[in-house]
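As a warm-up, study this chain.
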Amino acid sequence: MNLFQRLFRSKQRTDAVSTQFGPGNPNGVIGMIVDQERAWFRSYAANTYTGTGAVVDLGCFVGSSTIALAEGLLANGKVASPQVHAYDRFVWDDFLKAWWEEKAFPPARVIDGSVLPEFLHRTSRWKDYIVVHQEDLNLTRWNRAPIEFLLIDAMKSAELAQAIARAFYPYLMPGVSYVAHQDFAHFFTSWIHLLQFRLRDCFEVVADVPNSSTVVFRCLRRLTADDLNSVPFSSTPSSEIKEAFAYSLGVVSEDKQTNIIAAKAMAYIHRGELEQAQQTLRTIPADTRSLGRGLENVRAILAERMQQAVKQGG
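Now compare it with the structure written out below.
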């Protein structure tokens, strides 16, 4: 199993991919988020959203998060003409195809390698409230209105994290805007911790969604060009990694802390610092379990990398 297959597998919790109807999933949607996340997004849109800025969903896949937000907006009652701006490349790649087939879902609606038809089908009931953006987020520029709610499930690389922050963060409103990082407790996306640590004076944590990877921040002050120019991660010193993950451990609930430590080890793996990764994982008891098997995945990745290093050294 390669690294990207593990990335997707780690998001495959039973309730995350179920098409069974339930309290947190009344529409039987397909997606890689859990019922608690859908319920939180729906509740935010229904009860907290003021209509001062846009609702933006980055990495919407086939609509699980988009539907939850649209349902909440329709229940809001205080906002005229509510909309969700849903972004994705909608590329039907080998990883998504394998994931879909493994779950034995009905065949996806795919045209010319695009899963956009499946998204449009699943969100058709709410189509008047959704603005679809089929775009590469590495290249996207928002340049529109203020953003009140920014849901991010798309920072799958350090480069994407930088591009998204620079394109969307300048439009956040102090004291009003929320940023929901759906991969905050995911083992792979270690750059999110560096990003939020560097911008820690600009945000405060307002929600830690149970049994999920999602952590929600509120914007405290407008982000400047200097704030966003500090984002590149290529030359991050080891001392900053330690500080960033200490910060993250201090803002999440206990059930996410093992995943945060796993992400710290993954940060060292991304840098090729395998001994540091090994030392980080040694702080966790061998029988510890983690959300979405994040810890188990990092241990397996580290073992593979160390074996490769031994072979190359020999």
